[in-house]
Amino acid sequence: MSAIYKSQAAQEAVEAGYRKLLDTWPIPKEELRIPTSQGETFVIACGPKDAPALIALHGAQANAVTWMFDSLVWSQTFRTFLIDVPGDAGFSAPVRPPLGGEAYVNWLDEVTAALGFRQVSLVGISLGGWLALDYATRRSERVTSIALLCPAGVGGQKNLLLKALPLLLLGPWGQRKLFEMVFGEAPEDPPPVARELMAFMTLVTTSTRARPLKIPVFSDEALARLTMPVLAIVGGKDVLLDSDGTRRRLQAHAPGAEVRYLPEGRHFLPGQTQAIDEFLRRAT
Q1: Where are the alpha helices (DSSP H) in 2-45?
Q2: Measured distance between the N- and C-terminal CA atoms of the chain, rounded to whole angstroms
Q3: For residue 121, what are the CA distances in angstroms to 20, 187, 218, 272?
Q4: Rounded Cα distance, 141 and 120, in Å
Q5: Residue of 158, 156, 211, 208 lying closest to 182 (CA atoms)
Q6: What share of the chain is helix, strand, coil (3-state, %, to 5)?
Q7: Residue 203 backbone zone (phi > 0: left; psi -120 to 50: alpha; other: beta)
Q8: Domain 8-283, what fold?
Q9: DSSP states of 90-154 as a string?
């Protein structure tokens, strides 16, 4: 059993649920397994093979299925690669190298080389946004554009623990309220596939151990190296990250940044697929 999961049964349940979703993927795809210095990396590839490359990086306690519905749109224009980040609840290696060093940058170098692309566009959410930014600030010549949803490492983290502890003592009701604080209220009557995906993401959250980390904050000098087109979408009611700080710092220091601030948005920002697609197509 990997240290990522709370039990062997939890790991088996997540892997079975993941495989079920992969087997019902709504568009044609390939499943790739790429050897890297961080172990094997699992990648879902879809879209025309001769199209520009787009890499999507999910957040913590998630995997590439995060982007299932987004891939329907993005793969019409891009060769879209949805990557399981090592150390999370996917099929990549169960390793969690420290943030801030060269490990993740070198890992993405190896992945992009194996995929056969010198330049790529990046999409990242939360911790995946941090990974995308880390790569773009160190390998700016290889990144044609970058789109971010509630990215970590710009405006800093908030202390959710003080609000979370009392709710966690209230059982399932408190857990549901905490989930709503982070992600907002679930739709009342989602379509069956969306309902299945939501149930799977809840399973992942309850079955895995969170990364015990303090996410490094990018310096002003690092943000200034974002010379490619940048789109950042942040929510004003994000209880995990300082969206106001993210907006201010990107506008002040990243010359190519376009920041969309959604006052009622939380850490999960649904409905941004088309906006990201339009941005990426303009920037390519």
Answers
A1: 8-23
A2: 42
A3: 29, 31, 20, 17
A4: 10
A5: 158
A6: 40, 20, 40
A7: alpha
A8: Rossmann fold (3.40.50)
A9: SSS----PPTTSSHHHHHHHHHHHHHT-SSEEEEEETHHHHHHHHHHHH-GGGEEEEEEES-SSS
Other C-beta atoms within 10 Å of 124: how many?
Answer: 27
Residues 273, 94: Cα–Cα separation, whole Å: 29
**Cα Dmax for the chain:** 53
pLDDT of the chain, 284 residues: tens digit per residue: 458 999 999 999 999 999 999 999 999 999 999 999 999 999 999 999 999 999 999 999 899 999 999 999 999 999 999 999 999 999 999 999 999 899 999 999 999 999 999 999 999 999 999 999 999 999 999 999 999 999 999 998 876 544 444 444 445 544 555 555 556 666 566 667 778 888 898 899 889 988 877 899 999 999 999 999 999 999 999 988 999 999 999 999 998 899 999 999 998 899 999 999 999 999 98
- In the chain, where are the structural domains located? 8-283
Contacts of 198 (CB under 8 A, 6+ apart): 186, 190
